[in-house]
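User: Can you write out an input/output pair for a complex, sequences first and structure second?

Assistant: Here is one pair. Inputs:
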Amino acid sequence: MTRKPGPTWEQRARLEAAAAWFNRVGFPDDPPSPEDLEAFELWKADSPENVRMFNIVKDEMRPYDNPLFRFLLKERVAAHEAESDAKD
Amino acid sequence: MANQRRPIEYSDEDRAVLNRLDRKFRRSLLTYFGRRTRDLCDLEDMVQDVFERLLKRGNTSELERQNLSAYVFETASSVLTDHLRKKITRRDHLYEPFDQNRHGEKDFSPEHVLIYRQQLELTSAMLLELPEETRAVFLLRRVEGMKVKDVAARLRISVSSVERHMRVAVWHVMQRSGGEQ
């Protein structure tokens, strides 16, 4: 059985850039500046791989768009934190 | 909410316990709640709820001799859960009736529910791996939907720190989910 090769440094760099772009433009209630938006469009136009990576990040962040998921997640994290605060 | 609270008559002993709890836990409880909800105006009430629940539970002096902080944070967690539930209830008017055409594609099969639960479990475990401040930033920004500058003000850090924490958090999520493949 052959192991699937890991990501190249180039893929990682692209993904890191995509994650950074998502943080700048991926929040509809906190819209980016026109300059950011223009820079983002230029970055996407630079390579189809950039677009693909950005879509991967967007897909990964999609569950957080669901209010029920956010609520349950918050509750769960708070319970774990309270448990560990109590232990300390 | 603060205006709706009815004044409670405390005995001298209760008042003494409340003062001790206040001195010892008030600040850490405000931080605890402040990092988990965007409703700043409710923080004081939530802290007060914790103290009142501990008082109602009784035997506070006994608890003080044991591991009181464990009870305090356990109670804080339940106060927070109740607060979040109330928030959802208050939004009941936003309830949308089921419409086969719009919602029919949603899968509520046991398999789907199980997958959803697993996803929640994995995501919370993943967030708990993050440093506390990074996690707090991510929760306020991505889960509470606060703006970058508001997160910065809440946690008393710079906007660039918020952005840095978010980069770390999103990168962590991507790595843990294997999204780099």
